[in-house]
Amino acid sequence: MSEVLVPYGDTRGDAMVQVSFTLPMAHSKVAEGAAAQLANKMGMDPALVVHAKPLGPDHTFFVVYGRVNHVVDPSQVVVVERDYPLLSPKEVNAAIKRHLRRRLTVVGACIGTDAHTVGIDAILNIKGFAGEKGLEYYRELKVVNLGAQVAVPQLVERAREEKADVVLVSQVVTQRDAHLLNTREMSAAFRESYPSDKRPLLVVGGPRFDEMMADELGVDRIFGRGTTPGEVASFITSRLAPPRSTT
Amino acid sequence: MTGKLDLDPRTVRHARSLARKAGRPIVTMAKKHTTVSVERATLRLAGLGGADEEGTPWVNRLVDVVRADLDDRGGLEHGVALPVWDALLRGEGDDLLTLAQKAAAGSVTFRLPEGKDATRARAAARKQVDAGLRSVDARRRERERLIGRHGDAPRQPWIYLIVATGDIHEDIPQAQQAAREGADVIAVIRSTGQSLLDFVPEGATREGFAGTYATQENFRLMRAALDDSSKELGRYIRLTNYASGLCMPEIAVLAGLERLDMMLNDSMYGILFRDINPVRTFVDQRFSRQVHARAGIIINTGEDNYLTTADAVEAAHTVTTSQLLNEYFAKEAGLEDWQLGLGHAFEIDPAIPDSFRMELAHALLAREIFPKAPLKWMPPTRHMTGDVFHGNLLDGFFNLAGALTGQGILLVGMMTEAVVTPWLSDRDVALQNVRYVLDAAGSLHEDFHPAPDGLIATRARHVLGESIELLDRIVDDGMLDAIADGTFGLMKRPADAGRGLDGVAVKSDAYYNPASEALDAPPKAAR
Fold first, then answer.
1. Domain termination residue (choose one: B130, B146, B167)
2. Which pLDDT tens digit goes with each residue over B122-157?
3. What is the DSSP code string of B168-218?
4. What whole-number distance in Å separates Cα of residue B317 and Cα of residue B320?
5. How many domains in chain B?
6. B362 touching A, CB under 8 A?
7. Under DSSP, is residue B523 helix (H, G, I), strand (E, B) or coil?
8. Is residue B492 annotated as part of the catalytic site, yes or no?
9. Is B420 a member of any domain?
10. Which of A213, B161, B446, B508 is the least buried, fewest Cβ under 10 Å from its Cβ?
11. Which of B242, B261, B294 is the last residue of a domain?
């Protein structure tokens, strides 16, 4: 028998939780009742509306405490594990330094007619994205950002010139599945011009990609919407310079 | 407020003179160059707006054709004013828009006029660009009139709030609500990456990436909405946008024409954080700041960015150094002390002992070096973790540091920083935090006198000393080489690389630009 749990307020088994939310209605007795009703529907009973504050004429903010009637069963929890550890920039730098004894070169581009560099810039520019610095910030990464509308042959040529360890391609425009066609063309071109064991790691990203399609498109990894530079850096490191295990 | 740190005035003067020494060769270099964006800004001042059906602005079209036509004579190096107004005088188009349309269709050929033709073209260009500058002057007077009528922000620091939905028609009600809740300044964050576009998008926009495009129409719509709010609330609500990037001069012109009140305009942000070519940046920056000076706009500089990439204790002196350089470039471009919203931020790791005392030291140092500037105080972001309760406490200390050190512009920190874009309730909690601190301790600076040999004063003097050492190195190396060597923000940015370099040209002897001519002239007392 697995053990089920309820939230802990100040006594084991009290099942107390606290939530806050805003309802789009003026503050009134009815509004407070509505907040209690929402809390009831969330499984809180009794629900105590401890704070209600008007936010302008049309909204009210609530803080509600109450006993929740749900239980959780940790043995039933399914977690999709990321297949690489998330590393800090310091850990990335240290791993690369130890493994490669040189800087790791990343060549990035938007290929085809795509002029939207927002994705590649968010990952590569030091300015970064979502509070994380871009790959330029990593001391041990050498970043070559080719920008927008790079032709595939040009990308392959620059990757060879720079001895790229990783090629990062961003595709935002998806009209007539352009992102899929471009990616297939790109991966085919790299397979053609490199022996299979020398080929750089191919990583593509964009808001409309299905992360499961990497094999089908002939690339090593696909990153979808909301990917941060730290995730990309961690992935690259885990593949090319796996940090020493702690055992 | 001054004299709390016992700074030696000679040391401060020395730091300023080093900044001047480091910056002067950059100004000399900037004066010798023009850029596509400076030329497009000049055409915008002359009244050319709008875009073709593909969304390419007419100013881009016209500048590109002129440059191509004069390719064998140096392209951009003479400026576009002479060839453009020469073509108008030759009857190639009735006005700039017609000329741009015909140029795009390939039915006009531009030449570099000489002799009397050149004199006539110069006069015509000057007349039309002057009219644009007079509209900027009129908008400035209008701002002064509206502040007189509605009243100014009730106290300092001004409370600065951000909206960023991506849709200007969503931004407007949010901005108006924020003003009702107490914001004195509304900033509309731009779409990610707009700073890398080599054109200014056109029209009202409803789709952006984590922000809303800066366009002339979006500026106009938001300013009009906040004019309504100013009337409703009985205080003038200021509007802020961002000039930094490849189109600094043009966005500065649009801000002047649409009566924006503050603009983010950093001397090195584009170089360091966006890999824009250093020469392009310094040329564009100087012109854009001259326009801001004329428009009575307060600039905000971007020193907070250094602390988001480097450690806030180790890199504290890079902030001071950058503030001194930003001040020099700003004053050289004609901006006055009250227009210098020099940036800095509350980014020290809260786990470090005495972190708050060090924050006070850094904030007070900026206050005392720049006693007349409305400093821009930026909230914690690096150490906001998603623990919203701790985040709210940290924001409270940030607000307290702002009140204790007399900051001029306080960007309201959100406890949900790094979690979500601010919710309605987040903004309310954040403003409640600011109001509580300012009401409870807004005048505490009157009683706050750090011990002369205490940690705060010692730390401030130490940072100033480090800043002088760094300025010394920059003067020795030359600023462009210092930037190329990675002296700032860890980034190496050589002068012959980076975005937008192909849009830079050395001015020829024949170069003429009526906007630069007017902006370089000493200010008239009558204005």
1. B130
2. 999 999 999 999 999 999 999 999 999 999 999 999
3. HHHHHHHHHHHHHTT-SEEEEPPPTTGGG-SS---S-----SSS----HHH
4. 5
5. 2
6. no
7. coil
8. no
9. no
10. B446
11. B242
B107 and B175 in a common domain: no
What domains can be seen in chain A, in order of their start residue? 16-74 (3.30.30.60), 89-240 (3.40.50.280)
State how beta strands A201-205 and A221-223 pair.
Answer: parallel
Chain B residues with beta carbon closer than 8 angstroms to that of A125: 273-275
Please write the tens of the pLDDT for every residue from B462-479: 999 999 999 999 999 999
Judge whether residue B1 has pLDDT over 60: no
Q: What tokens were used for B458?
A: 């010692």
B210 is a domain residue = yes
Does B122 lie in the same domain as B60? yes
The pLDDT confidence band at residue B396, using thresholds 50, 70 and 90, is very high
Q: Identify the pLDDT of residue A81.
A: 61
Task: Write the pLDDT tens digit of every residue in B243-277.
Answer: 999 999 999 999 999 999 999 999 888 898 788 99
Q: Please report whether residue B234 resides in a domain.
A: yes
CA separation for the pair A229, A89 (Å, rounded): 10
Distance linking the first and last C-alpha atoms of chain B? 31
Q: Mean of the pLDDT values across residues A127-153?
A: 86
Residues B38 and B123 in one domain: yes
Structural domain harbouring B165: 157-242
What residues contact B24, with CB distance under 8 A and at least 6 apart?
none
Q: Is the pLDDT of residue B418 over 90?
A: no
CB contact under 8 A, B196 and A22: no
Residues of A known to be catalytic? 127
Q: Do B234 and B163 share a structural domain?
A: yes
Residues of chain A contacting B, Cβ within 8 Å? 20-22, 53, 55-56, 59, 61, 117-118, 121-122, 125-127, 129-131, 133, 136-137, 139, 145, 147
Residue B489 has pLDDT above 90, yes or no: no
**Whether residue B124 sits in one domain with residue B45:** yes
Structure token pair of residue A16? 């107390």
Binned at pLDDT 50, 70 and 90, residue B241 comes out as: very high
